[in-house]
Each structure stands twice: as C-alpha cells, then as structure tokens.
Amino acid sequence: MIESQDKVVLLVIAATALFSYKGFNDYSFFEKYKFQITRIQNGEKFRMFTSGLLHADWMHLLFNMYALYLFGDIVVFRLGIIPFLVIYLGSLLAGSLYSLSYHKHEPYYSAIGASGAVSGIVYASILLYPEMELFLFFVPIPIKGYIFGVIYLLYSIYGMKKQLGNIGHSAHLGGAIGGFALTLVFYPRVFQENTMMVVALTIPILILLFFGKKLNV
Question: InterPro entries, per this entry (predicted)?
C-alpha cells in the first residue's frame, strides 16, 4: 500500500522533471507551454495546466518537487491516490484561474512552475494534520501547521498586492484556496475534528474573495 502511494507522488515528480528539462533546453517548447495571459485569453487554455510542468531552473524545480515529496505522501496516505491527483491538478487549475483573473489586464504577464499545485497539497496536509510542526527558513522554532497556513495566506495576499519579487503570489494563493476547498470536499469530517482551525483558515480567504480588490496593503 505504502509503495503504491510513494510511486504516484514520484511519478508526478518524474513527469514534471522531464517536462521541465525539455523546457530548459528548448526555448520554443518553453514558450509554447508557459502561462501567458494573452495566449490563454485567445483560447490556449492548456497553458493553465502545462505551465505547472515548467520551471525556470533546477533550483526552482527542486524546491517545488522537494515540497511535493514531503507533503504528497501525507495526502495520499490519508485520502488515497485519486483524491491526491484531483487536489494536485485542481489546485494547479485554481492557481491559474486566480492568476488569470488577477492579471487579466496585463497582456504580457507570464508564469511557470508547480507552486500553485504544491501549495494546494501543503494546505491539504495542514487540514488533515493541523498539529504538524513546520520550520520556516531562518526561524529555528517549530510552527503549528494551521498557524503556518494563516501566515502563508496573509503573506501571499501582501506579496500579490505589492508585487514582491519574481514570484507568482497569485498562483500560490489560488492553489492554496483550491487545496483547502477540495480537501474539505474529500474529507468533510475536518469540520467536526478541527472547527476552529477551519474557521481560522477560512477568514482570510473570504476577506480576499469579497474585498480583495479594495484592499490597500
């Protein structure tokens, strides 16, 4: 059982690595499949998925795949292979859709990476195991999973508004929301098991969805 669970996560990692490697060495391939606002608006919807298989460089790829390796098995073990794949792909799509909506008036905006999908898997893991302890870079003190989730959401909102760094904060945020929602669909018992944690993670999402365009952070 555990071996089959490991294999599906490794298969996603392998497919992403091969696709990204092709993109590293083939500029036309990279340009054809990356997330690009104008191209998607003109009908190339496949880019909302294929962009999640491309990465800027080896470090970008390794960072995302390492996170998927750490958290992917948690979701597979608790929910199963099919829910894991649905959450991964659903979060990737949610990240792309949110980016498309947020940047729709920026015709040259483009993005790549599996960060939206991985964010969804991380959020699913937090919902399933809210008491897990995570370590942030340069912070030697462990942080509870649900606290990290709230911090992550708030930072993504701030980074998206301020356009911090060369990071697709909107995809991260959309992916996290997708993972959050889909996990509740597959495992609604989390409402009874960790009601306060669900509420704590829902509040910033609702604020963003209803008042996002009015926020001046």
Answer: Peptidase_S54_rhomboid_dom, Rhomboid-like_sf, Rhomboid_protease_S54
Q: Give the position of tokens 């059982």.
A: 1
- Condensed to tens digits (0 to 9), the pLDDT of residues 30-40 reads 999 999 999 99
pLDDT in tens, 101-153: 888 888 888 888 888 899 899 889 888 887 777 766 555 677 776 676 666 66
Q: How crowded is the C-beta side of 19, counted as CA atoms within 13 Å? A: 21
Residues with Cβ < 8 Å from 39, sequence gap 6 or more?
47
CA atoms within 13 A on the CB side of 167: 17
CA angle 131, 159, 112 (to 5 degrees): 90
Q: Tell me which residue of 154, 143, 193 sits closest to 176, measured CA to CA.
A: 154
In the block, residue with structure tokens 């979701």? 75
- DSSP-H helix ranges across 51-194: 58-79, 81-102, 115-128, 145-162, 169-186, 190-193
Domain boundaries, the chain: 56-105+114-214
Tokens of 37: 């606002």
Q: What is the DSSP letter of 26?
A: -
Intra-chain end-to-end CA distance of the chain, in Å: 47
Give the CA distances from residue 40 to residues 90, 92, 207, in Å, rounded to whole numbers and listed in that order.
Answer: 18, 15, 28
pTM of the model: 0.84
Answer whether 160's CB lies under 8 Å from 170's CB.
yes
